[in-house]
Design brief:
- With 581 residues, the chain is an alpha+beta fold.
- It has one domain: Alpha/alpha barrel (Glycosyltransferase), CATH 1.50.10.10.
- The chain has 21 helices and 13 strands.
- Strands 8-9-10-11 form a 4-stranded antiparallel beta sheet.
- A hairpin with a 2-residue loop joins strand 4 and strand 5.
- The structure holds alpha-D-glucopyranose.
- It catalyses: Hydrolysis of terminal non-reducing beta-D-fructofuranoside residues in beta-D-fructofuranosides.
- Belongs to the glycosyl hydrolase 100 family.
- This is Alkaline/neutral invertase.
- It comes from Gunnera manicata.
Amino acid sequence: MSPAGMDAAQNGSSNSIFEIEDSDFSRLLDRPRPLNIERNRSFEERSFSELSNALSPPHHFYRNTENSSRIMDHIEHSYTPSIRSGIHTPRSSYNGFEPHPMVGDAWEALRRSMVFFRGEPVGTIAALDNSAEELNYDQVFVRDFVPSALAFLMNGEPEIVKNFLLKTLRLQSWEKKVDQFKLGEGVMPASFKVIHDPVRNFETIIADFGESAIGRVAPVDSGESAIGRVAPVDSGFWWIILLRAYTKSTGDSSLAEKPECQKGIRLILNLCLSEGFDTFPTLLCADGCSMIDRRMGVYGYPIEIQALFFMALRCALLLLREEDGECKDCVERIRKRLHALSFHMRSYFWLDLKQLNDIYRFKTEEYSHTAVNKFNVMPDSLPEWVFDFMPCRGGYFIGNVSPAKMDFRWFCLGNCVAILSSLATPEQSSAIMDLIESRWDELVGEMPLKICYPAIEGHEWRIVTGCDPKNTRWSYHNGGSWPVLLWLLTAACIKTGRPQIARRAIDLAESRLVKDGWPEYYDGKLGRYIGKQSRKFQTWSIAGYLVAKMLLEDPSHMGMIALEDDRQMKSVIKRSASWTC
Ligand code: GLC
């Protein structure tokens, strides 16, 4: 899609709910979601009239303004319980939104992926299609559950999310060992699995902290060694982000206030806030510790982890009870880190045409505190493609920054989370969206959305991936297209006031996802081909689609996954200030 085409689409007629101005968005974020906690009865058992009451938004929220009443109208329609079917297939119809037939299919598939532990739903398995050799897809992955959790929260079903949060919290306190080495207390698992013992008719949970599920796969209970052995850094961050989403969505702060949850947050953050040899506020990590869980040259300070770290820190500030003596110190450390981290990221990870030109002209070997080229980056290390990729208008957070090393690749998750968490300033957020619009073919193509751009190939691929046959160019983590990323794009679009872009992306997904059996990823420069080893009925492809649809239908859901710009962090810091100050 050409930029002109996108412009036309943007200027064309739009649904009224899309015309959200900044001020409207802030209100949406503040809106308390309806309190809807019932412990013992499922939705099936409840009458529609109860649902109606439980799901109606508080009327005081949208008072007076024209926009308010528009949104109010919309909310009342979308929460009309009669639109829900008895099998939990959700509402999906109001002015202009005909329920797409896929939505019902998606809900059905999502429900089939639910995992129960002693009768209670505790998560969703990674993929329904487990016919292939790789066995780890019948596990509940923490990161994979996030879009499922959001879908359930948006549909007024918080129970599964609460159970998940509590179960994974228990796993955090396990003594975790990889070989003889004991992992930190706060590490959250990459995934867990419910094991049923038919003889004793007893269920147990087995967790994986990176020792078996990441990299290569060994059956969890086989004892066979695997080659992954990287603890997931993102799991703990997603856990905190999800706890805040649950709290925001339900209005129930009692879960987050439980002493064990408060301790869980502190343990996760202690691992990241402890002092060491590091001189940067960014978090140092190993390759394969996040969504890209294989060797892909994302070690050091990858944008995905930095953006999630920032978001988790901000969520933690909202959740920790400062009046608790134990939390006070943690809160103070979080504040300081947020300040330094936002400055560092906004200054050194940011790339736009001007910055690119500056780097191109950088002098090297500058030794003073006033150095412009603070990381001593060699202009010759700039890859050819970045000059063509960079539009006149637009910019993005690059993949990684460390001394004498910048990874200029564009990564989807990190940039979207930077927008949602307000790590990106409003100007940077707009610029990220400008870039997505101008580079639509490269980043969205025929199936949203590229995990990163561009792919690495040839000698570089051999060195960086270690000749990984799953990560060949334009496949899987190496420039493959992942439908799950649709929810993040949609959320970023809404936050920046450009929902039309999300609509276009969703249209593309709708033209293929069901037909293709909800693949995990697509291959090719345009994302035209179902991925070589792509799993079908991948749960987060399904849930990501549902979340994207629900966000567009009811942007007030944004409150659970987006944070407003924090005035405190807006204090003016000049680029030339040294990060050591
Ligand atoms: C792959 C993905 C990882 C995901 C897992 C389960 O390993 O890279 O991000 O969590 O599959 O779907």
